[in-house]
Amino acid sequence: xxxxxGAPRGAADEVxxxxxxxxxxxxxxxxxxxxxxxxxxxxGLVDDGRVVAGCNVENAxxxxxxxxxxxxxxxxxxxxxxxxxxxxxxxxxxxxLMPCGRCRQLLWENGGPGCLLMTPEGVLPMSAVLPQxxxxxxxxxxxx
Length: 144
Ligand code: THU
Known about the structure:
- By secondary structure, the chain is α+β, with helices and mostly antiparallel strands.
- The protein is built from six helices and five strands.
- A five-stranded mixed beta sheet has the order 2-1-3-4-5.
- A hairpin with a 2-residue loop joins strand 4 and strand 5.
- The mean pLDDT is 94.
């Protein structure tokens, strides 16, 4: 397994990353990606121990495609809510894939800066992969 980098060691070591990866691979195999042929699966650990997951779902109107993370976040809320604490996203090779910028924002909203992400360079907190993120706090700081 990839080395831990930049995350509190204790927290990262407590996560069963291989369990998350295998669940993400299962979902990747169910992806509906006939246009890009780029299959993605993702699995996330919730703070109550649940595991939620998703795959990408494309559309003939290409821009309507749903990233795998959208499905995972939908399952998070549909199955009772909670906070994501660790996330593993994989591509068609079953190895760690960096979530796109939009999906990092989704992970930030639902896991916050301390949520751990498996990256090709090891485990990193969301604060490292989405620095200076815009979030709910910023809405409260608005002047107008
Ligand atoms: N994709 C995801 O599902 N998640 C990401 O974070 C990156 C991109 C999907 C969207 C599209 O179906 C395919 O990968 C190619 O961009």
